[in-house]
Backbone:
């Protein structure tokens, strides 16, 4: 079960990196956007990365919790 905890931690860290990357992309989009429509389009382009990163983080945390419970 230690392997499950380690794999879950790695998956969570990958998800966290994706969340940080999406935050940085949105901050850059806010600086570079000329109008509201352009900003909205750039934020919508980042949305799949954000949701996927949150999904990875949740799956990783579930693996960690499951590994701890089974240990």
Residues:
């Amino acid at each position: 079960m230690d392997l499950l905890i380690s794999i879950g931690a790695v998956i969570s860290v990958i998800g966290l990196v994706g969340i940080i990357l999406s935050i940085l992309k949105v901050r850059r989009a806010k600086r570079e956007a000329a109008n509201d429509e352009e900003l909205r389009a750039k934020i919508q382009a980042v949305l799949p990365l954000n949701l996927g990163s949150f999904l990875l983080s949740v799956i990783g945390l579930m693996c960690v919790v499951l590994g701890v419970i089974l240990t």
Summary: DSSP finds two helices and no strands in the chain. The first helix runs from residue 2 to 32. The mean pLDDT is 93. The radius of gyration is 16 Å.
